[in-house]
Design brief:
alpha/beta, Rossmann fold, seven-stranded mixed β-sheet, six-stranded mixed β-sheet, 11 helices, 37% helix
Length: 401
């Protein structure tokens, strides 16, 4: 299994210098439930339980991500409890809304501490995750973020993640494009106000020369200018870019594809996991995304038996198709289960003792998840897993073999 962080020290230093404002993107159809975000999930009436907290946005502009994480985690908790729990102990899961706001995320963390949280699945997005990470480190509370991609989300030894980091995605995108000879002349459009987009771009630009990729246009936008991409697209077209790399979220990417069609510009478009969800954008014509490619840890159309079972069960519970956020959360809960069983965690252990035990146990477990087979972790908190390359064809997502 590939070690994603090998050789990335220079990129990590650069990414850590950026402001932290967001996590990775997600798919629009997440099967969000109508349950209140301050939810508790348990199949046991006993007071002796293992309490796992969750934090993420279930209201506001990023709610689609938080709802997906909450639902994916709750499904895993339900399955685990029905199968006998963790070390024979039932699990309670309590998910708090942070509205994608760092200060509110810390407040949510304190609410969960008062509730008795013993480990945290969260937070969902990067800036809140970094803020919560500071207090979790002080408390020696174990933190496993399903989807916080910024480098600093796992800067302390009590923090691990399920998703890919920003630099990982940039490196692997450049390698895939170069190794598969998709193009030689490449343009990049990125969000310079967003740590997710900028971190991916920096790693991509660093690796591009190694893959004989010529960056003929590098165009930025910001959160205040993310509706009109005509200038960036025209520069890419004039420079002869055969491929345009889009390391940002599907909502903006949908506008890029619409506006590219307007000027009759038809390069290959290639994105990262933030692209997952573009087909669910209201009013977006799926034909515009034909042949769009992106890296992703998960696709619900995979024929893998474990993935299809997860998709079926998720749809039955929540009435929608799970996205990568739901999948990462689902794997995250099962990773906590495996690590707690490896460390022989009991409900009466202190938060700090549980954390110390899990720091070691996480590096000793292997799980067969829905985001990767034989998923393992390094002591630096990074997962070791391969990305999938997804290509949109005929209005649906398909894994490129």
């Amino acid at each position: 299994m590939k070690n994603w962080k090998k050789g990335l020290s220079a990129l990590v230093v650069a990414a850590m210098a950026m402001s932290l404002v967001a996590g990775c993107g997600g798919k629009g159809d997440n099967g969000g439930s109508s349950n209140d975000s301050n939810s508790e999930s348990s199949s046991s009436g006993s007071e002796t339980v293992i309490k796992i907290g969750g934090i993420g946005p279930t209201t506001g502009g990023a709610a689609i991500y938080g709802e997906a994480v909450k639902n994916g985690a709750e499904l895993a908790v339900k399955e685990i409890n029905e199968a006998g729990g963790i070390n024979g102990i039932q699990v309670e899961f309590n998910f708090q809304d942070d509205e994608n706001d760092a200060e509110k995320a810390v407040n949510a963390y304190n609410t969960l501490k008062d509730w008795g949280m013993q480990a945290l699945l969260g937070t969902v997005t990067s800036a809140p995750c970094v803020a919560v990470g500071e207090v979790a480190m002080s408390d020696n509370m174990f933190l496993l973020t399903p989807s916080g991609t910024a480098v600093d989300c796992v800067q302390y030894d009590n923090a691990f993640r399920v998703c890919f980091s920003d630099p990982m995605q940039g490196l692997e995108s450049a390698k895939y494009i170069g190794e598969n000879k998709l193009a030689e002349k490449v343009a990049v459009i990125y969000d310079s106000s967003d740590v997710y987009s900028t971190g991916i771009y920096q790693a991509f630009a660093e690796e591009a020369p190694n893959q004989n990729l010529q960056l003929v246009a590098t165009e930025a936008f910001t959160a205040e200018s993310k509706t009109d991409f005509s200038v960036q697209l025209q520069k890419a077209k004039d420079a002869g870019a055969e491929l345009v790399f889009l390391p940002f979220y599907y909502s903006e990417a949908a506008l890029v594809l619409q506006q590219a069609a307007g000027i009759k510009y038809e390069p290959i478009f290639f994105g990262c996991d933030g692209m997952d969800g573009i087909l669910a954008v209201d009013g977006f014509e799926a034909d515009l995304a034909q042949d769009l490619m992106f890296l992703s840890p998960f696709t619900p159309t995979s024929e893998e038996e474990a993935i299809q079972t997860f998709v079926t069960d998720f749809q039955a519970a929540y009435g929608g198709t799970p996205n990568q956020f739901a999948a990462d959360a689902y794997d995250g809960i099962y990773a906590l289960k495996a690590a707690m069983e490896r460390a022989d965690v009991s409900a009466d252990m202190s938060v700090s003792d549980i954390c110390d035990a899990l720091k070691t146990a996480m590096t000793e477990i292997t799980i067969d998840g829905v985001t990767a087979k034989s998923l393992t972790w390094e002591a630096n908190g990074e997962p070791s897993k391969e990305p999938m390359v997804v290509k949109i064809a005929d209005g649906d997502y398909a894994v490129v073999e």
